[in-house]
Amino acid sequence: MKFTVIAAAALAALSVTAASAQTTLKIGSEGAYPPFNTKDTAGNVVGFDIDIAQAMCAEMKVTCTVVTQDWDGMIPALVNKKFDFVSASMSITEERQKVVNFTDPYYSNKLQFVAKKGTELSVKPEDLKKKIIGAQRATIAAEWIEKNIGAGTNVKLYDTQENAWLDLEAGRTDAVLADAFLSYDWLQSPTGKNFEFKDKPVFDDDKIGMAVRKEDKELLAKLNAALKKVIESGTYDTINKKYFPFSIR
């Protein structure tokens, strides 16, 4: 009887150790937000968010795979354990922090309007109410528009940022509000060459982090430690230069 109890305790301890020594993780990302996360010709999710997350996984010595998820269902999918953490250019907001925890910021962004070259655009709310404005749904850009312009017929919210760009290019909107670094990449593309930033950023303190479930405190600590090593080793700067000719930290 004594041997059986000891053996059972030993097996339980081994089970706990195995559970805590997780060797694989799933990264949640959208795959429709270039250059941060998008799909290549083979259907693989690539981009700045993914490169940074995979560098962190290498530091943690775990194998990570990417699971795609529509943007507006990202946090519910994380909470329901579809994946282990989110690397999808998610802004750290008080509202989101009620549901999930975030790592230290891995880059900073700002919101700025984009419109056709040669057109005038005042970013004063009273002037924007006279324009048709677009943004991606469930983003801080959409939140800014709803707070400052309203949710009338002159506001169009899209399921993906790519669809917001398509309507702007087609002339179905007068301007789009989006993350400046995201917009920078689009403005360098053939489809964005006839557009430009307008006026100053309307919000310039957007901190981006990776989201984890509230209960996954150990994973959060490991991710933060890995991010620190990725930055200190110079790997972060190498990835940054792959996508931008300037630092986005």
From TrEMBL:
<feature type="domain" description="Solute-binding protein family 3/N-terminal">
    <location>
        <begin position="24"/>
        <end position="247"/>
    </location>
</feature>
<dbReference type="InterPro" id="IPR018313">
    <property type="entry name" value="SBP_3_CS"/>
</dbReference>
<dbReference type="InterPro" id="IPR001638">
    <property type="entry name" value="Solute-binding_3/MltF_N"/>
</dbReference>
<dbReference type="GO" id="GO:0030313">
    <property type="term" value="C:cell envelope"/>
</dbReference>
<dbReference type="Pfam" id="PF00497">
    <property type="entry name" value="SBP_bac_3"/>
</dbReference>
<feature type="signal peptide">
    <location>
        <begin position="1"/>
        <end position="21"/>
    </location>
</feature>
<keyword id="KW-0732">Signal</keyword>
<protein>
    <submittedName>
        <fullName>Amino acid ABC transporter substrate-binding protein</fullName>
    </submittedName>
</protein>
<comment type="similarity">
    <text>Belongs to the bacterial solute-binding protein 3 family.</text>
</comment>
